[in-house]
Amino acid sequence: LGHNLKFHETLPSTQKEAHHLAEDGAADGTLVVADEQSTGRGRLGREWHSPMGTGIWMSLIIRPDIALHQTPQLTLLTSVAVVKAIHDITGVECGIKWPNDILYNGKKIVGILTELQAEASHVKAIIIGIGMNVNADAADFPDELKKRAASIKSLTGREHDRPAIIQAILKHFELLYNTYLEEGFEIIKLLWESYALSLGKEIYARTVKGDTIKGLAKGIDDEGVLLLETRDGTVHHIYSADIEII
Ligand code: BTN
Fold first, then answer.
1. How far does the centroid of ligand 1 lie from the alpha carbon of residue 234, in Å?
2. Do 114 and 29 belong to one domain?
3. What is the total count of domains within the chain?
């Protein structure tokens, strides 16, 4: 993975670039990295703040032979790889808020955006975008992000080596991905649960449709879908939502 590396000083979005490359047939494991993004994209159509030189802005193209409905599993797998990599290189132990926000003390350090290229029900490529706040100073965040986001430097008080973190992400991703392809999702699910911040807690889930459901986060199913139990005992299957831990 990552042997085919496309590095850019600046790009509108590594995610957009990776989509183009994948459509043009880029090999499995192609990695696009930029030092700055002018129009970084987040989940649910949001912007992603990606200033020059302080973060990791990258998108990985993979071409697994899996069914469409299995793709959320790879999102969860990626978040496990990223948490392990941060711990290896910086010593910081983050947790995961379903599906794949990586937090420390309630503040977001990393966001992951998984997107698909598919034909009928066959996956042609998965584009995994990772945005990590590494060396920004707390004061550099725009005001609206200060309460919700943090960088690793703001936690440890020192700068961290971005290429070393990228390498560690690729190493862990590759190990977990091979395990996944050979043995399935079971082990990945257990690992993900060991880092999960929301399980067993009362949460609000705001769905893409705009509904808010309050309930108990019971767990995830074998495909990575969140199981949310409301007071009347109904278990809702949440495929995509924003979670707030109450
Ligand atoms: C989220 O909303 O939490 C996901 C954020 C994903 C951001 C990354 S940065 C690299 C890649 N390129 C983009 O434009 N977005 C993703």
1. 33
2. yes
3. 2
- The interface pTM score, or ipTM, of the predicted complex is 0.99
Distance CA 101, CA 79 (A): 8
Same domain for 97 and 159? yes
Asked if residue 2 has pLDDT above 80, the reply is no
Contact between 200 and 216 under an 8 Å Cβ cutoff? The reply is yes
Distance from the alpha carbon of residue 128 to the mean position of ligand 1, in angstroms: 9
Question: Do residue 110 and residue 208 come from a single domain?
Answer: no
For ligand 1, is residue 55 a contact (CB within 6 Å)? no
Say how far apart CA 151 and CA 132 lie, in whole Å: 8
Q: Are strands 226-229 and 212-220 parallel, antiparallel or unpaired?
A: antiparallel
Closest-CA residue, ligand 1 atom 16, reads: 129
For the Cβ of 49 lying below 6 angstroms from any atom of ligand 1, the answer is no
| 73, 220 Cβ separation under 8 angstroms | no
Give pTM, 2 decimals. 0.95
Same domain as 34, residue 18 = yes
45: DSSP letter: G
117: containing domain:
5-195
Q: How far is the CA of 36 from the centre of ligand 1 (A)?
A: 12
- Could you tell which of 113, 166, 206 is best to mutate to test the pocket of ligand 1, judged by most ligand atoms within 8 Å of the CB? 113
